[in-house]
Automatic annotation (TrEMBL), chain A:
It comes from Streptomyces himalayensis subsp. himalayensis. Residues 1-26 form the signal peptide. Keywords: Signal. The keyword Signal applies. This is Peptidase M10 metallopeptidase domain-containing protein. It comes from the Bacteria.
Length: 174, 268
């Protein structure tokens, strides 16, 4: 190996090691909220009765998938707040990434109690947000042609359960 | 001799270790500078994650969104500032971290206003909210609604405002913003594959403006039917337990007709 090549390899190796140590930032999340494992503990914080019911229903739905759930902190944290000025019913995001920033350690679910939702819609919301914790994205009319998925984009178009496609997708994506 | 040759081939001299160390230090320092450059006063200057949201309304087209809106404005972002905090006084338990979120107040210079209601007046400077930051100052965007950038031009579809201040306006939903690119092409905040995004395909800013201008000239029966917007909850609405349906109206949860794609590996 020539001296020049040796220098290039050495510097490249150093830079690669350093790159692994460099903090990651925007752009690592556009694949959805990927849980760091298939055992997820769920904890609600001062929830309203509707929020509690939605969380419990969502957890039940998640249990139908390859993900095993339990009650407790550290994985999925559920809150409900009255948020005016927006029209979303619930949202899910990664709160804490794992050490390698490749999947999510702690996931936050936030329900919105500003709007009046029917019980059916609350079940939809619970299923939908828990679906995001299983790395599911939104579905549209064109890929939920039989209208039986809770992962559609709005409370009006979504069903209150996962369909087989959702369950398979959780298995494939987690 | 052969083994000696290999030993020499992979031999890393002391100067090599120093070079690798130096490269490491340079790269780490550069990374740290970049990292610090994405925060201002502890708040990220760009979204770090996408918060996936379920909307309470989904529009059939941009046209339906337009007639449901109180007004549509064409505007340029002049300023962005930290806004209100939601959930800050509702921390779960002593010692638990808050899930509070903070809005971004986006100031807009309105250049054109379109509305089917002639009585609607939108000030030249308005503020709309977008989200946001979490309790740690980490930035997140909601669905495909990226953070609006100063100097960029957009169409904003405005919904009912709960503020008496006319400067404070609400974007009608996370689908309610369209970015006008430099070449006039449009990038909707509606998610790819949604009805709104599909309806904007192949349109440009001039066609969009022309359509909006003509809204007043179209007879009401020819306009799309406005979407049903959600109703504000009354106190106590969220306090009654959910009744789970005892009979499942649609027990077949298969994909059924075979028209749905195979499982996608991740969110889309």
């Amino acid at each position: 190996m020539s001296q020049i090549k040796r220098i290039l390899w050495t510097v490249t190796a150093g830079a690669m090691i350093a790159a692994l140590c460099t903090p990651a930032y925007a752009g690592h999340d556009n694949e959805g909220t990927d849980p760091d494992n298939r055992n997820q503990a769920v904890k609600g914080f001062n929830l309203t009765a509707k929020g509690q019911g939605a969380m419990e229903w969502g957890k039940t739905q998640l249990e139908r998938s390859v993900i095993t759930t339990s009650w407790g902190g550290g994985d999925i944290e559920v809150h409900d707040y009255t948020t005016s000025g927006v029209t979303w019913a619930g949202q899910t995001r990664c709160k804490e990434w794992n050490a390698l920033w490749t999947s999510c350690d702690v996931i936050t679910i936030q329900f919105n109690t500003y709007w009046k939702f029917s019980d059916w819609e609350w079940l939809v919301i619970g299923c939908h947000e828990m679906g995001h914790t299983g790395d599911l994205g939104h579905r549209s009319a064109s890929n939920d042609t039989d209208d039986n998925s809770c992962m559609r984009g709005s409370t009006g178009s979504a069903y209150y359960k996962f369909d087989a496609h959702d369950l398979n997708a959780i298995a494939a994506g987690t | 001799m052969e083994s000696d040759f290999h030993m020499r081939d992979f031999y890393l001299p002391k100067w090599g270790i120093w070079a690798a160390s130096a490269a490491t230090v340079v790269a780490v320092t550069t990374g740290a500078v970049v990292w610090n450059g994405t925060e201002t006063n502890g708040l990220d200057t760009e979204p770090e994650v996408i918060s996936h949201a379920l909307e309470s309304v989904e529009f059939e087209s941009f046209a339906q969104m337009a007639v449901t809106s109180t007004a549509v404005v064409r505007a340029t972002v002049t300023e962005v500032n930290p806004g209100r905090i939601v959930g800050g006084d509702e921390t779960a338990e002593p010692g638990e971290e808050s899930a509070a979120t903070q809005a971004r107040d986006v100031t807009l210079k309105v250049t054109q206003t379109f509305s089917i209601d002639d009585s609607v007046e939108i000030p030249e400077l308005i503020i709309v909210e977008e989200w946001g930051w979490d309790a740690d100052g980490d930035g997140f965007q909601v669905n495909n609604y990226t953070w609006s950038e100063v100097g960029e031009e957009y169409f904003f579809f405005l919904g009912d405002s709960d503020s008496s201040d006319p400067i404070r306006q609400n974007v009608i939903s996370t689908e309610g913003r369209i970015h006008i690119n430099e070449n006039g092409s449009l990038s909707p905040s509606a998610e790819e594959g949604s009805a709104v995004a599909d309806s904007i395909d192949n349109l440009d800013d001039s066609i969009m403006s022309e359509y909006m201008t003509q809204l007043n000239d179209i007879s009401p029966e020819d306009l799309p039917t406005p979407a049903d917007m959600p109703e504000e909850a009354s106190p106590g609405d969220a306090d009654t337990p959910i009744q789970i349906p005892s009979d499942d109206p649609s027990p077949d949860l298969g994909t059924g007709d075979g028209s749905e794609p195979t499982p996608y590996p991740s969110a889309t």
